[in-house]
Design a protein that fits this description.
single chain; about 240 residues; alpha+beta; Glutaredoxin; 5 helices; 11 strands
């Protein structure tokens, strides 16, 4: 044993009277200092851990309340089943796990629908430029199934974002999808050429990867406002399903 203290009072002995350790007063002081530091770290870590747990609990409670609020709104709670512009059957489940921007309109719309779809396409294109963000899927659901068949939608969606999916179906299927999102749609009177305008709700819906409605954007919202809102939703999103 190496003796580090000349003072026998600082020596430790075993039951046979043999020296088993020897610490100087300065060594003992260092041990006490490290002990206090270790205790402080453990206590501090415990406080931080407790704070993190409480904060996590608050976030989870907020998310649960948010989901309940969204479900009470009852937007998009149904499961639509429609044909896309390629003639393939699509349901709501096909888009789970993806962010979705959804717009209801019709291909014979003279101005509002093209303007809103142009804006929607610009938003999605801007989001596509940021590799840190997940892809957002744009959807266009017709409210005019009488004229907007698969072929009409295929021709129409070419004028907008390349990933835009057009959806149509029977009058009953389209009506159900519109009702799920509380979209009002009412065909007006036909003119002498058989043409007519469909009066309908003008909103772009944001749907989370959980398939829940999160937000909507009316005509007054510009591209940058919608873009900022979507980025904020993506940043703060926590799956609850």
């Amino acid at each position: 044993v190496i003796l580090t203290s000349e003072n026998p009072d600082n020596w430790d002995f075993n039951k046979d009277g043999q020296i088993i350790s020897s610490y100087s007063s300065s060594s003992r002081a260092h041990v006490k200092l490290w002990t206090r530091l270790l205790v402080s770290l453990l206590v501090g870590g415990g406080v931080l851990g407790a704070w993190w747990y409480v904060d996590l609990e608050k976030q989870q409670k907020f998310q649960r309340r948010r989901v309940e609020q969204l479900r009470k709104v009852a937007l998009g709670q149904g499961t639509f089943s429609l044909l896309d512009h390629m003639g393939q059957r699509r349901t709501k489940q096909d888009f789970l796990g993806n962010w979705v921007l959804m717009y209801f309109g019709f291909t014979h719309c003279p101005d509002i629908c093209p303007e809103e779809l142009d804006k929607l396409s610009a938003v999605v294109s801007a989001l596509d430029q940021d590799p840190s963000l997940p892809r957002v899927q744009p959807l266009f659901i017709t409210v005019d199934p009488e004229r907007d068949n698969v072929g009409a939608l295929a021709r129409y969606v070419k004028d907008f974002h390349p990933r835009l999916i057009g959806l149509t179906g029977t009058p009953e299927e389209v009506k159900q999808a519109a009702q799920d999102y509380r979209v009002y749609a009412s065909p007006g009177p036909k003119d002498e050429d058989g043409d007519y305008i469909v009066d309908h709700t003008v909103l772009v819906y944001l749907v989370s990867p959980d398939g829940l409605f999160l937000d909507y954007y009316n005509r007054m919202k510009n591209k940058d406002q919608i873009l900022d809102s979507i980025k904020n939703h993506i940043k703060n999103f926590r799956s609850v399903i």
